[in-house]
Amino acid sequence: MTGVTHSDGFPPRAVVNVARRTVSRADYARAESFLPWNVRPLIHNATVTPHWLDDGSDRFWYRRTSPEGAAFVLVDPATATREPAFDHVRLAAALSEASGRACVHTQLPFEEIRLVDGGQTLGFSVDGQGWTCDLETYACARSDWTEPAKDELRSPDGAWAAFTRGGNLFVREVASGREQQLTDDAEPYYDYASHPDARQSAVTDRALGKPLPPAAVWSPDSRRLLTYRLDQRSVGEMHLLQSVPPDGSFRPVLHRYRYPLPGDASAGEAALLIVDVPSGDTRWLQTPPLSDSVVVNPFELGQVWWSKDGKRIYVVRGTRDRRHVALEVVDADSGAARTVLEESGSTTTYPHHIVTESPINTVHELDGGRAVTWFSTRSGWGHLYVHDATTGAVRRPLTSGPWTVREVVRLDADGGWLYFTAGGREPERDPYLRHLYRVRVDGSELALLTPEDAEHGVTFSPSGAFFLDTHSRIDLAPVTVLRAAAGEQVLTLEEADVSGLAARGWSFPERVRVMARDGVTPLYGMVIRPSTFDPQRRYPVLDAIYPGPQTIRTPKAFPDVTTQFWQDQALAELGFLVVTLDGQGTPYRWKAFHDVAYGTRFGEAGGLADHVAGLRQLAERDESLDLERVGIYGHSGGGYASTRALLEFPDFYKVAVSSAGNHDQRGYVAFWAETWMGRDPESWTEQDNIQLARRLQGKLLLVHGELDDNVHPSLTLRLVDALITADKDFDLLIIPNTNHGLFDTRRGLKAQANARAYGNPYFVRRRWDYFVRHLVGVEPPEYHLTPPAD
């Protein structure tokens, strides 16, 4: 094989087939060192979060970290300066004297600050007590300032706070504390500004007492609230049984909640209304109630919003299967509504930004409201168009070509520019990498503003004259720069410090490109190797899968601790090569690519056949991948896909760990299932994992949280029943008091913030053990993880 080079440019490795015979406690300890809570202290300044001053400038502060501690930085884009926000040593001394507690300048007891009075006064909170400090004299004094309540929604001018009580909507005047009731006729499951029961974690959030602001949005002038009356009375009930109540009772607790399933006659309705705060007058919008997405707050989705001048309201409305979508404009004074444009298709037609994880809408007013921008995949690719706001006719395309717009970031109406991110336009680059562009609103002068071959995350300043750009890849540490609106670099703000990872032996993952099952469609993913990787050895392979169809599994930016990456890395440390691959049926490419898993083809589960083809190609290039020992794991949709892989490809996949799987979409929430399967029951049966239970040959561990209020545990138990009927051996782990993220709800709200990234330590260890036992073929050592502190 000497001298042979494969199509990716890399020569194959010569490998001695040495089977790994032991997995030791030291291996487990090394794996634990790469879990998110142990990696967090090793990554510094991977992101910069700007906090804009409210003095009309574009100045902002951010908090940076280092191995020594943290510091606050003040940036003035107009003067291209970056400096300490204050004298940290003087402040620590002053606060120590005023509070009676010792403070160290590198570890100040707060993470948020307020700069007021033109930046001359510093405000912060310590253990709930407000403080101010004069930055000329550094005299510190207690203040009566408190953080805004998390169950309130502040008006843009800060004068009012909206909240709900007993299902009705109230406002409170912040200065005086005076309350005003805006509605008075709420009924159970027919109330105002509430959050739908079917949203993720609704039951466990209630059990935890998690505060939520009202589902509403203030008008730009702070006088009116746009909200809805949510009718869930006809939505079917679901039930969860809490077998181990926190109070020690031997009587299990029954939790009830409203949760629409595919095909249900009602998924709930949200009737939109405007409440005028000064007068208390209520005006219903003259448009039918929303019935297509009321399992999610439509304001969070960017489905309903005010125009910038507050005179109009825009509503994106669709059918429950998203095959028909319309844009409506509502006169805010009269409530009169009219349909601006409509679009239909044989598959999901909604802009994918609305039905996926990005809430940024793509509709913006042009020509004083006489035209609007609109996202569509009508050409086969996701692009932006300008439509006449009266007739709905297309005036012109803003973008075109074999690439995909991801989101609209900003409209500069005065300058005549539209700023957006897109992927796939730059040749020879990973098409998932987002770059920032701008285009004239007449469709001319399209320009790339972020040239680096990387994933770009951008945040514009309040005036729009500047933006922050954090660019990185999974194999490239983040750099954050400040740019002018036209793209010129003004300042380098931070270069991330990941030296602590290197000191631990970590190496960047490898970006890979393979062909799909058809041999012509390129797919992208990554390979994660252990820090002890030996190119002369053969390693069992783990396919880490999430099938979409609403998102992808392979991170494109540097993997921070909020991603699944570090769980993958920890598994690799036990002697595996972990691979992710985004097959056909997942988003952000082109329309036909996304539609591969639509409807009757939903069982494609993110292109499982593509995964098999891709892994075989990788093994041809790199003989350290042992395809005689392939396992797969995933959570939620990944739980579905990992089980599906074991049943569809039993000769290829030998072991699966499937957690919180929605194994039959007919038992999952209507909003998601009908979007990707349609509403024809005849198309729903083929995706059911349960009908394939008789095919099980490999080792399968099914895991579910008993209080999973997103994917009900019955979906795993129905599969269990089918496996028993088929007389198949399998393993089952039901974890009491845990929800969809396998978060132990008894740990409280403080711990919940990190739960998604950190995972459940017991489940983490059990997953390790399962693959070590059944894929490596040895007994795992006795080992117990140290859970993260709350």
Short characterization:
By secondary structure, the chain is an alpha+beta fold. The strands form ten sheets. An eight-stranded mixed β-sheet has the order 36-37-39-38-40-41-42-43, with helices on both faces.
Model description:
By secondary structure, the protein is of the alpha+beta class. 16% of the residues lie in helices and 31% in strands. The strands form 10 sheets. The protein has an 8-stranded mixed beta sheet, with helices on both faces. Helix 10 links the parallel strand 40 and strand 41. Helix 1 packs antiparallel against helix 7. The longest helix has 16 residues. It is globular and about 70 Å long. The N terminus is likely disordered.
Number of DSSP helical runs: 15
User: Which strand order do you get reading across the main beta sheet?
Assistant: 36-37-39-38-40-41-42-43
Low-confidence region ranges: 1-16, 353-360
> How large is the share of residues in beta strands?
25-35%
Gross morphology is globular
Q: Mean of the pLDDT scores?
A: 92
Helix and strand composition category: alpha+beta
User: Mind summarizing the main beta sheet?
Assistant: 8 strands, mixed
| N-C termini distance | 53 Å
Helicity range: 10-25%
How do the helices and strands line up, and which of them pair or pack?
Elements: H1 25-33, H2 36-39, E1 51-52, E2 60-66, E3 69-76, E4 81-84, H3 88-99, E5 114-116, E6 121-126, E7 129-134, E8 140-143, E9 153-154, E10 160-165, E11 168-173, E12 179-181, E13 190-192, H4 202-208, E14 216-218, E15 224-231, E16 237-242, E17 253-258, E18 269-276, E19 282-284, E20 304-306, E21 312-318, E22 324-331, E23 337-344, H5 352-355, E24 365-366, E25 371-376, E26 383-388, E27 394-397, E28 404-412, E29 417-423, E30 435-440, E31 447-448, E32 455-460, E33 466-473, E34 476-484, E35 489-495, H6 499-503, E36 510-515, E37 522-528, E38 539-544, H7 565-572, E39 577-582, H8 591-595, H9 608-621, E40 625-635, H10 637-648, E41 655-659, H11 670-677, E42 699-705, H12 714-725, E43 731-735, H13 749-752, H14 755-758, H15 761-776
Parallel strand pairs: 38-39, 38-40, 40-41, 41-42, 42-43
Antiparallel strand pairs: 1-2, 2-3, 3-4, 5-6, 6-7, 7-8, 9-10, 10-11, 11-12, 13-15, 14-15, 15-18, 16-17, 18-19, 20-21, 21-22, 22-23, 24-25, 25-26, 26-27, 28-29, 29-30, 30-31, 32-33, 33-34, 34-35, 36-37, 37-39
Helix pairs in contact: 1-7
